[in-house]
Write a structure and sequence with these properties.
Blueprint: H1 3-6, E1 21-24, E2 40-43, H2 45-54, H3 56-66
Antiparallel strand pairs: 1-2
């Protein structure tokens, strides 16, 4: 049983919603104001969607690196 299922709050400053995902704190873009207390950052549904939009090109490049052509 992880922290998300226990009801941890979103790590974004000013957000009090329940987290639905946890990500490595190193992957969080600097444009998102996140208060991290360890290796993981916890994001609510709204901020996880924003995270996906901000890291779209980065994830695409990672997929290209490992594709077999």
């Amino acid at each position: 049983m992880g922290k998300v299922s226990k009801g941890v709050k979103c790590s974004v400053v000013g957000c009090e919603e329940r987290a639905v995902r946890s990500i490595a704190s190193q992957r969080v873009p600097s444009s998102m104001k996140v208060e991290v207390e360890g290796r993981r950052a916890y994001l609510c549904e709204k901020h996880y969607k924003e995270f996906k939009k901000l890291t779209r090109t980065e994830r695409k490049v990672e997929r290209w690196r490992y594709s077999t052509i």
